[in-house]
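Allow me, if you will, to draw on your knowledge of protein folds for a short while. Thank you for your consideration; the sequence and its tokens are set out here:
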Amino acid sequence: MSVYAAAALLAIKLATGVAAGSLGFVSEALHSGTDLVAALLTFFAVGYAVKPADASHSYGHGKAEHLTALAEASVLALVSVAVGALAVSHLAGWIESDVDAAWWTFAAAGLVIAIDVSRTIVSYRGARRHGSAALLSNALHFGSDLAGTVAVLLGLVAVRAGWPKGDAVAALFVALLVVVAAGRLMSRNIAVLMDRAPAGAVDAARHAIEGLTPPVALRRLRLRQAGGRTFADVVIAVSPGAAVGQGHAAADRVESAVHGALPGADVVVHVEPMGDESALRERIHAAAMGVSHVREVHNLALIATDEGMEVSLHLKLPGGLTVSEAHAIADRVERAIAGAAPEVAAVQTHIEPLGEEAAGTEIDGDAREIEEIATRLTGAPPRNLRFLRTDEGLVVFLTLAVDGASTLAAAHERASAVEVAVRDAHPEIAEIIVHTEP
């Protein structure tokens, strides 16, 4: 329809402009000539752009529309500059013209306006229905034609009223109008061809992903557009201990969220581990210790569940606090961890009172039996053994020598075995602290 309309308008405007001596109509005829070329380019570009992706064009052929729109805008700008120069020549008196504003020129303008309105509406509806950049550029182009024809009509009215330069002014207005429209069109399509991220779409996709429950750790979000379609590249992080099924489920939730925000988008989600688990533990520990009144954090555990990463930890707080005060501090700890580690889905805290300082006196204890137990279980006598009498009871400090190449878990197991054996032999001991060293 655009091709037929452009051909008809070219004939009407050129015939009227030559017969009436109207520079405005001639400039509009040149404009319609570029319309005809642009419509033909769009016709072939849209046909090429809708071809499915192939081995050479993995993302499809959608950018053909933007290349066509850019070429159309360039031609428009060049023709408009030429028309503008001609109009200035008429206004300056370098070129004389005699415009015949007869009734049939107004009839021709009315017919042109009717055609412009119809093709602008058809192209705009097609652009919205199919999300086509080429059809949208045609609609904007035809809209500028409509405004230009109205300007030509007003110029003819001015000539009829006794101002001969009104036609040249109309032609200059058409040229300026088209240059502005061409500049906007070029800017829009250059942005797409350069893969400029669409700001509104990026914000919508990021908001959709960050609003997921349970939360997902978003590492990277990249968007680009081509042929009216958005392509999204998303990288998320999951717990290193999560199963493949859990990672896939998280990716599916992200893909659905992006589709909800950007219908029709082509979404690729890459899943990667959160990284070194020790780094996550350090962030959680530092966040908890940064809360006022927290004196110690221990038994920190990370648990990967279907809902995401969960954390449990023990907090030691001053024993003089009330239960309400301690609970409020625990709430602050949970909020601090959520801020420092957004990938954590839930935090469970266990509150313990911090023991008050107690006076202690070093004493001589029954060292022989404890030394025998340590030697029997470790193969070597303890390096150090001390006894301390406190208000809480007898405290024993025991240092064991272990192989420096053994694992920490093995050393802890050996120390625990010695501790249990000493407690069984001396139940009167209040606390045994066993230290291992290479």
In short: The domain at 360-437 is CATH 3.30.70.1350 (Alpha-Beta Plaits). The longest strand covers residues 308-318. The mean pLDDT is 79.
